[in-house]
Every structure is written in structure tokens, then in C-alpha cells.
Design a protein that fits this description.
heterodimer, A: alpha+beta, Methane Monooxygenase Hydroxylase, Chain G, domain 1, 5-stranded parallel sheet, 5-stranded antiparallel sheet, 18 helices, 19 strands, 38% helix, globular, B: alpha+beta, Ubiquitin-like (UB roll), Fumarate Reductase Iron-sulfur Protein, Chain B, domain 2, 2 domains, two-stranded antiparallel sheet, 8 helices, elongated, FAD/NAD-bd_sf (chain A), flavoprotein (chain A), EC 1.3.5.1 (chain A), electron transport (chain A)
Chain lengths: 670, 246
């Protein structure tokens, strides 16, 4: 099947407006007869469910947590971008579009990104109207901060809990529709398959996680908003339950999976402390606004610090290597995430890591505290303030900005980051790859949509900070509600979809057989045993840098691990009860397939772009020596994979990327 | 460190539960409490027993899913943290730790340490929102200036993660801190004014209907709240409710 992105014709700035003017609409009386299933209730799913219900569709929403408010969007910290230009610093729709395409290393679809930038300002208006308490300045107007990879301040925030506040906004909009009966909410439910009838998505099979009951749900369209697949690495900043099952199941039923190798390893996370570690904790990128990243210049100091003979605060300025400021003077500590992560890895690989594992660098707030302290002293007319006074005043400012993050750090590491620099190291955080969708956000299966992190569309090979919240809400509030209407306008005469059909029978049987296998297989190893092994292969061979040999090994090792899993996995308990081990088993089974496709995609893409760094493809000389080398001639395409049984047999379909409004350039942050 | 755990085990909502003793060894002080529970569960799975079911998800203190009552305190002995952020350095070698679910009539036990907190959702359905449709045509976000003080206070109230520690801690199983926080967030913002009277009446009515108790101002909820939600929010809710009568 040839991939058709269905991007409307015409100049980029008019595409979305023209499109909206021409699509088919569904009249309000008919919307009452149309059902839509939304899987996942994060920013994308929650906002889509609420908006579709407001429009009049009957929505069934599903989440595996005990309440839609707990989806992992809640953990997003730093902020949300929008081209409001409230700071008057030269921002515009075009500039946000440009920054996003460039930040994504020219591997995203121009038309989608432009639309994203276009609706971004509406998101802020909408959220304020919902009562989202964004940070404000003393004049009562909205405050902004800046984020990595851009030269303007366009990020709106609510302390370090922006994702929480935006999600609670979407959740409140859902609550209003649940109260009206327009959304039926299925908490503690997990989608285990999609049901296709005559080639169209017409329902799902879900498991009630409390009773174990397998349920059939029909609808005229199905929307997958189940987030990313970062937990394929076992350790990531994702929630423990975050999984790729919904996305992977639809892939196996015909939805192409695009660019799985584009994964974001976030530069500022709390380093791991031991083998028992269950997850990694992010420290928001917003900290790089005020924190300076460094390692010691001299190896003797590194060793002394590791052995506890010296403290980081003992080192003078010229004994420190602020390597981002040194290598990238224009952007300094605010280079994009992929660049910052690789730079940290480079220093640690060279032996300069500052903790016992050798995998940590410092993020230091001392100069920010001093700078803010002096500023406050001036504002409050304090003449000749003491160093302590400056520190106290500055600490207050830093606390107001990042207090909850500092508290989180202190609780985990047991060190006070106001006094000693934080230790950070990169960790898996976000997946740019995902289910392939066209301009309408529809997958390669009719009536099956995919939104938010679960799809591949807007971030190319690297996502800029504060853009995930923007994309999730743009898809759910402002894009999908239009595009899905155009499709559903053909369904006004269809009537209710029955669930007592052979398609539902078959899908349900498949699901039940798999569950029966798990609870009856008397294997030797726990699910976590396999998940950890998979995670190690992924981190070692498909992590921050990749090469042909490692990727080939990864494919073989994952395949072997998967075969062992299907023989020797052990799942206690039964199918007809709450059984967390059984839930995990299903998710890990899917990760064991996805991981192999991930490695295959990474092997196919013999270029370095964004989060995907191939050791074979680096600049050999000039100012950019050692930096990633993109290959536009051979790889300016989206790699969309079609499922053919084994992940290794997946067939590649290319969507060639056209850049009409932005010139393809080497990304330079020097 | 080596520890004895006394854990509430209950097969399902209809079964009778009981405390069961377990031993765990070589627990590192750097582990989080839930990682210690992972160690126990791995041990149970490997010995063919059923692991202990407990709610958890983000493991960074923001989703509000984890909900254990540890040594008689919601989220355990540390302050300002959820169970997932509680670290084993708060305990010492040889300790016996008692682990129970959050207990309240309105939070029935589903299994082991997992409870049903959907009563909180239903209170929000009753009015925890501002009635504005998604349109893209709402007025510009900066059209109504909001004083920094009010915005910050609204944010402090909105920080509630809906975990239910306030209810579990309260001798009356009162949900007033939770409801007060939501009522306050909207009461402090101009956008919330239009529906303020209906909102507080409906949310309080639903809260009573769910079987939560009344507030007798002991202040335990504020102390155990992992997000430091202030008692002032309860006062504000009562004030809003009084105002709504007129």
C-alpha cells in the first residue's frame, strides 16, 4: 500500500484553514447516534474525549489507572510552548514551526508541524478559560520561561507541575461530560485488541482489571491515545504502567509503525543508584535555564570526588569544565536535549563522571542563586548585602521557580541541591516514533486514529522541550475533533455496531487464549526478569549511540529472549481477578516484539539525526567535527513499517519528506 | 537492612482480610519504599506465591495512585511525600513495618492494599469544572489579569493529587481537604466565579452522599498531605458554602 499523507494543497499558512472550510460536518442530531472509543486519558486522550463529547458524540473512554486524572501526562514538569509572543521577543507561528522542524532535525512533516504551531496559542486561551493556574507576573499577566533549542521565551508553566495542571484541566472538561452522560468512563480497563470489520476499526476488546472480565466495546471510530513506548528500556521516566500494548496491537492489525528508533534520552534525570531501581526520575529541562552543567577539568579531582575526599563546591571556577558552554557558545546550557545528552555521555565515557557509577554530571545553581540574590538586593534597596543575605534572597527566587523539583531531588538523593550541585545523567524519556498517521491523524486502518505521543507525527527525530504538552492538547482539543468528523460523516446511517459478530468472537478468542497461556504456563522466571533483560539490551545497543554490529546483535538477542519468554515466563494468580503480574506479562510480550523492530529501524537508518545517533555517521572535520551527520539524500523519509508476523520480517514503506517552507540545513547550536 | 513486614492481605472486595508476616533481607537504604515492595513481590513470585497487590504508577509523587498506610500513617513516616517517594533510609535494620490499605467507608478495599477511590471522581463530576467548551474562540489568555497572589494561591490548592491521604488520616474519614482544595482553586480565579455557588453546593452534597465524614478541625489531614494542602482551603470552602446560601 502506498502511503498517502493526505496533506492539503496550497500555501502552508492556509492549509489548515482551507481544510476546515471544506470538510464534511455531521449535524448535531446525527452525532447522537455515533459512538467513539478513546483509549488513554492523558492530555491527548482526555482532551479528545472531552471535546468529542461536547460536540455531541457518545464517547467511551478507557484508562488502566483508577482515575483518568492519573495518566502520565501528569508528570510533565517544565511547561507548554505557544506562539503567543507575549514577551515581544520576536516569536511567531512561523518561528515556532521553524524551531520545531529544526529541533526535530528535519525529519517531521512540515504541514503537521505548521498546524501545531498555528493552534498552539488557542491552547493557552482554552486552558486559562478552564481555570488552569499558570504562573503570572506581578502585573497579573502570564509569565514565560525559555526552553532548550530556541532563542525566545514562549513556554507557559505552572511551577514545575505544568503537566499536572493541564491534565487536571482536561480531566475537569471530561468530568463535565461524564456528568452529562456523554462520556462513559472505564477506569481500570486495558485495551487488548482492536476489532476490524470490513477493513474499518469498529471496536476494541478490553479487560476489566478488577474482575478480569473480557469485554467487547463497539464504536464507529477508535482513537488510540496511549502514550509512548519508553518502557521498552525497562528504566525510563515513564510511569510503571506506561505501555505500548494498544499501539502495538493496532500495528499487528494493519497500522504501520513509524520511526521506532527515534527515542529521546533526556539529559537531566537523577542517576541510577542500584540494580533494584524501578524507574528514573526526571529533573525538568527548565532547570537548564538557571543551572550550569559541568564536570571537573582534572582527572585527579574526579577521583577525589568519587572517593569523598573533595566536594564539588571545593573546586574553583577554573577547575571546572562547563562543557556545554565550551562546545556550544551560542546556546550554552540550552542546547536541545539530544545534543546535551550526547555531550554528557561523551564526558562520562571519557572518565569524568562524578559519582560511583561514573555516570553523572553536575547541574549547578550556585551562580543563579547569586545572580538572583544580587538582583533582589537591588530591588529591595539593600546596600552592601552580605554573601549570606545574597544567598538567602537568591534561594527564595530559585525556590519559587523550582521548589517542588528541588524537594523531589532531596527526597530521592538525600542531598540539598541548594547547597551542593545536583547530579544528573540522561535517561529514556519520550518516544518521537510511533504509529504512522496521515494529516487527519488517521492510521493506515480506516476509522482508527492515533494522537499524542502514541503517534509519530510532529517531533521528527528529536522533540523540543515543552512541545509534548502542546502536541497532546493540540491533537485532542483542536485537530482530531475536526478530522474525525469528516470521516464520521459517512457513518450517519450505519446505526449501532453490534458486538455479537464473528470479528468480535475472533478478537476475543485471541485475547483469551493469550491470557490462558500466561496463567497456565508454569515457567521459571518472573515477568520483570525478562523486562530487565530487554531493557539492558536496549540501553546498551539501542541507546544514546548505535552502530551496525550492536544493532544486529540486539535484534538476535531480543528474538532469543522473546522465545525464552514464551517458554519460561511465570505468572502467578488467575485470569479472573485483579492480577498485576498478568497485566505486566502482556505488556512485556509486546515490548519484546517492539524492541526488535526498534533495532531493525535503527539499523536501516544509517545516518545520525536527532535522538538517533549512528557512530558510522559523524562529521569528520571542520567546525562541526564529531557532531552528528545527517544524510538528507538517502534518508529524508519517514520509515513506516508494516507488520508481517515476525518483527524482523516487517516491510518498509517510505513517506518522502518534502521541505518547501524550510531550507534543509545542518543543525548548528555552536 | 533486614525487615519484618506485616501486610494486609485480602483476596477481593468480598473476602475477609488479615495481616500476614513476611521477611525481606538486604534492603538498601537508597531504595524507595515501593522498590522494597518490588523485592518482596519478586521473592513471592519466585517462590510460587501471589504477590501483594498495591496501586502505584508514576513513582515520582505526582499521579496520586500509591496509597499505603504505613506504621499508622498515610504514606508513612516522612513528611511531604507520597509512598513512592518514601525512602528506606527512614527505617532501620530489624524494624517491623505494618502496611495497610487506606481505610475509609467511602474507599472500599479491592484487593490487598488496593482501594477504590472513585468517590473522589464522582465529587468532581458534581461540579469540579468550569463550563467552557473547546472552541479556539475563548478570549485571549491575557484578557483578564489575575493578581500573582491569587494565581499562586489557586496553584497551591490545585496541587492536590487526589491520593486520599487526608481521608485515610482523618478520624472522621472526611474528604474536606480534597473538596476544599478544588473549590478554592476555582473560587480564587475570576473564571470560576460564574458557577461558584452551584459548584460548592453540588460538590459538598456529593461528598456527603459518598459517606465521607465531617471536619472537626484536628488538622491531621494537613500534616499527612504529601502536597502540603493547607487547612485554609477547608475554611474557604465553608465560606463559599455560606455565601452560596444567599
Amino acid at each position: 500500500m502506498a502511503l498517502d499523507s493526505k496533506v492539503p494543497k496550497g500555501p502552508i499558512k492556509d492549509k489548515w484553514t482551507d481544510y476546515k472550510n471544506k470538510i464534511n460536518l455531521v449535524n448535531p442530531a446525527n452525532k447522537r447516534h455515533i459512538d467513539v472509543i478513546v483509549v488513554g486519558t492523558g492530555l491527548a486522550g482526555g482532551s479528545a474525549a472531552a471535546t468529542l463529547a461536547e460536540l455531541g458524540y457518545n464517547v467511551k473512554a478507557f484508562c488502566y489507572q483508577d482515575s483518568p486524572r492519573r495518566a502520565h501526562s501528569i508528570a510533565a514538569q517544565g511547561g507548554i510552548n505557544a506562539a503567543k509572543n507575549y514577551q515581544g521577543d520576536g516569536d511567531s507561528t512561523y518561528r515556532l514551526f521553524y524551531d520545531t522542524v529544526k529541533g526535530g532535525d528535519y525529519r517531521s512533516r512540515e504541514a503537521n508541524v505548521y498546524r501545531l504551531a498555528e493552534v498552539s496559542a488557542n491552547i493557552i486561551d482554552q486552558c486559562v478559560a478552564q481555570g488552569v493556574p499558570f504562573a503570572r507576573d506581578y502585573g497579573g499577566l502570564l509569565d514565560n520561561r525559555s526552553f532548550g533549542g530556541v532563542l525566545v521565551s514562549r513556554t507557559f508553566y505552572a511551577k514545575g507541575q505544568t503537566g499536572q495542571q493541564l491534565l487536571l484541566g482536561a480531566y475537569s472538561a471530561m468530568n463535565r461530560q461524564i456528568a452529562r452522560g456523554k462520556i462513559t468512563m472505564y477506569n481500570r480497563h486495558e485495551m487488548l485488541d482492536v476489532v476490524k470489520i470490513d477493513g474499518k476499526a469498529r471496536g476494541i476488546i478490553a479487560r476489566n482489571l478488577v474482575t478480569g472480565e473480557i469485554e467487547r466495546h463497539s464504536a464507529h471510530a477508535v482513537v488510540i491515545a496511549s502514550g509512548g513506548y519508553g518502557n521498552v528500556y525497562f528504566l525510563s521516566t515513564n510511569a510503571m504502567g506506561s505501555n505500548a500494548t494498544a499501539a502495538w496491537k493496532i500495528h499487528k492489525k494493519g497500522a504501520y509503525f513509524a520511526n521506532p528508533c527515534y527515542t529521546q534520552i533526556h539529559p537531566t534525570c537523577i542517576p541510577r543508584s542500584g540494580d533494584y531501581q524501578s524507574k528514573l526520575t526526571l529533573m525538568s529541562e527548565s532547570l537548564r535555564n538557571d543551572g550550569r552543567i559541568w564536570v571537573p577539568k582534572n582527572m585527579e579531582d574526579v577521583i577525589a570526588i568519587r572517593e569523598g575526599r573533595k566536594k564539588p563546591t571545593d573546586l574553583s571556577e577554573d577547575e571546572r569544565d562547563y562543557y556545554l558552554e565550551r562546545r556550544y557558545p551560542a546556546f550554552g546550557n540550552l542546547v536541545p536535549r539530544d545534543v546535551a545528552s550526547r555531550a554528557a555521555k561523551e564526558r562520562c565515557d571519557a572518565g569524568y563522571g562524578v559519582n560511583a557509577t561514573g555516570e553523572a554530571v553536575y547541574l549547578d545553581f550556585a551562580s543563579a542563586i547569586e545572580r538572583y540574590g544580587k538582583e533582589q538586593a537591588k530591588i529591595h534597596n539593600i546596600e552592601n548585602p552580605t554573601a549570606q543575605k545574597i544567598y538567602d534572597l537568591g534561594k527564595k527566587v530559585v525556590e519559587a521557580k523550582y521548589g517542588n523539583l528541588f524537594q523531589m531531588y532531596e527526597k530521592i538523593v538525600d542531598e540539598d541541591p541548594y547547597k551542593t550541585p545536583m547530579m544528573i545523567y540522561p535517561a529514556t524519556h519520550y518516544t518521537m516514533g510511533g504509529v504512522w498517521v496521515d494529516y487527519n491523524l488517521m492510521t493506515t486502518v480506516d476509522g482508527l486514529y492515533c494522537i499524542g505521543e502514541a503517534n509519530f507525527s510532529d517531533h521528527g527525530a528529536n522533540r523540543l522541550g515543552a512541545s509534548a504538552l502542546m502536541q497532546g492538547l493540540a491533537d485532542g482539543y483542536f485537530v482530531l475533533p475536526y478530522t474525525i468528523g469528516d470521516y464520521l460523516s459517512n457513518d450517519i446511517r450505519t446505526g449501532k455496531i453490534p458486538t455479537d459478530t464473528k470479528e468480535f468472537d475472533e478478537a476475543e478468542k485471541e485475547v483469551k487464549d493469550r491470557i490462558d497461556f500466561f496463567v497456565n504456563n508454569k515457567g521459571e522466571h518472573s515477568v520483570d526478569y525478562y523486562h530487565k533483560k530487554l531493557g539492558k539490551i536496549m540501553w546498551d545497543k539501542c541507546g544514546m549511540s548505535r552502530n551496525e554490529q550492536g544493532l544486529k546483535e540486539a535484534m538476535a538477542e531480543i528474538k532469543a529472549l522473546r522465545e525464552d519468554f514464551w517458554k519460561n515466563v511465570k505468572v502467578p494468580g488467575s485470569a479472573n481477578e485483579m492480577n498485576p503480574e498478568l497485566e505486566k506479562a502482556g505488556r512485556v510480550a509486546d515490548f519484546l516484539e517492539l524492541g526488535e523492530l526498534f533495532a531493525k529501524d535503527a539499523l536501516n537508518r544509517n545516518e545520525s539525526c536527532g535522538g538517533h545517533f549512528r557512530e558510522e555517521s559523524v562529521e569528520l572535520d571542520g567546525e562541526q567535527k564529531g557532531e552528528a551527520k545527517r544524510n538528507d539524500k538517502d534518508y529524508a523519509y519517514v520509515a513506516a513499517w508494516e507488520y508481517k508476523g515476525e518483527p524482523a520480517d516487517a516491510v518498509l514503506h517510505k513517506e518522502e519528506l518534502e521541505f518547501k517552507d524550510i531550507e534543509l540545513k545542518q543543525r548548528s547550536y555552536k | 537492612m533486614n525487615l519484618t513486614l506485616k501486610i494486609w492481605r485480602q483476596k477481593d472486595s468480598n473476602a475477609k482480610g488479615q495481616m500476614v508476616d513476611y521477611k525481606v533481607t538486604d534492603i538498601s537504604e537508597h531504595m524507595s519504599f515501593l522498590e522494597m515492595m518490588d523485592v518482596l513481590n519478586e521473592q513471592l513470585v519466585n517462590s510460587g506465591e501471589e504477590p501483594v497487590a498495591f496501586d502505584h504508577d508514576c513513582r515520582e509523587g505526582i499521579c496520586g495512585m500509591c496509597s499505603m498506610y504505613i506504621n499508622g500513617e498515610a504514606h508513612g513516616p516522612d513528611r511531604g511525600v507520597t509512598t513512592c517517594q518514601l525512602h528506606m533510609r527512614m527505617f532501620k535494620d530489624g524494624d517491623t513495618i505494618t502496611i495497610e490499605p487506606f481505610r475509609a467507608a467511602a474507599f472500599p478495599v479491592i484487593k490487598d492494599l488496593v482501594v477504590d477511590r472513585t468517590a473522589f471522581d464522582r465529587i468532581q463530576h458534581a461540579g469540579g469544572y468550569i463550563s467552557v467548551n473547546t472552541s479556539g474562540n475563548t478570549q485571549d489568555a491575557n484578557a483578564i489579569p489575575i493578581s500573582k497572589h491569587a494565581a499562586d494561591e489557586a496553584m497551591d490548592a490545585a496541587t492536590c493529587i487526589g491520593c486520599g491521604a487526608c481521608v485515610a488520616t482523618c478520624k472522621n474519614s472526611s474528604a474536606m481537604l480534597f473538596v476544599g482544595a478544588k473549590v478554592s482553586q476555582y473560587a480564587l480565579l475570576p473564571q470560576g466565579q460564574v458557577e461558584a455557588a452551584d459548584r460548592v453546593r453540588n460538590m459538598v452534597a456529593q461528598m456527603d452522599l459518598e459517606g465521607f465524614g465531617n471536619c472537626t478541625n484536628t488538622g491531621a489531614c494537613e500534616i499527612e498531605c504529601p502536597k502540603g494542602i493547607s487547612l485554609e482551603n477547608i475554611a474557604r470552602m465553608n465560606r463559599e458554602l455560606m455565601k452560596a446560601q444567599f
